[in-house]
Amino acid sequence: MSNITIYHNPACGTSRNTLEMIRNCGEEPTVIYYLDAPPERDELVRLIADMGITVSALLRTNVEPYEKLRLGEGTYTDDQLIDCMLQHPILINRPIVMTSLGTRLCRPSEVVLDILPVSQKGSFTKEDGEKIIDKSGKRIPLNLKSS
């Protein structure tokens, strides 16, 4: 049983890449499809605190409810923003990953590597073709990714 949980949206490439990097270390996480089963208020508040981010940093800005509700105008309190995310889970940015080493909003997806308790087992290439992990399971340095 894995101690890794991912709040996942299978329609999101970043979320899919993150999930596959977790699996590339030999772990099968608990997958929460947060659009179908959004977190309760207390859970969402705890996730935000555990990530050490602001409530507004968790908001997705490129979805219809963000514009329609005018969430970018700065007139909402944190509690009101949380209420909006609970009413419209699509506003919750993803993927969020919890492990024994911490909780992170994994954007970009390779942020997950910082909190995985187990090393990668082999190479990993993101859906867009970017190589992240070499065949020995080591992270490819930024300056070598283009070669």
TrEMBL record:
<dbReference type="InterPro" id="IPR006659">
    <property type="entry name" value="Arsenate_reductase"/>
</dbReference>
<keyword id="KW-0560">Oxidoreductase</keyword>
<dbReference type="GO" id="GO:0046685">
    <property type="term" value="P:response to arsenic-containing substance"/>
</dbReference>
<dbReference type="Pfam" id="PF03960">
    <property type="entry name" value="ArsC"/>
</dbReference>
<dbReference type="InterPro" id="IPR036249">
    <property type="entry name" value="Thioredoxin-like_sf"/>
</dbReference>
<dbReference type="InterPro" id="IPR006660">
    <property type="entry name" value="Arsenate_reductase-like"/>
</dbReference>
<comment type="similarity">
    <text>Belongs to the ArsC family.</text>
</comment>
<dbReference type="GO" id="GO:0008794">
    <property type="term" value="F:arsenate reductase (glutaredoxin) activity"/>
</dbReference>
<protein>
    <recommendedName>
        <fullName>arsenate reductase (glutathione/glutaredoxin)</fullName>
        <ecNumber>1.20.4.1</ecNumber>
    </recommendedName>
</protein>
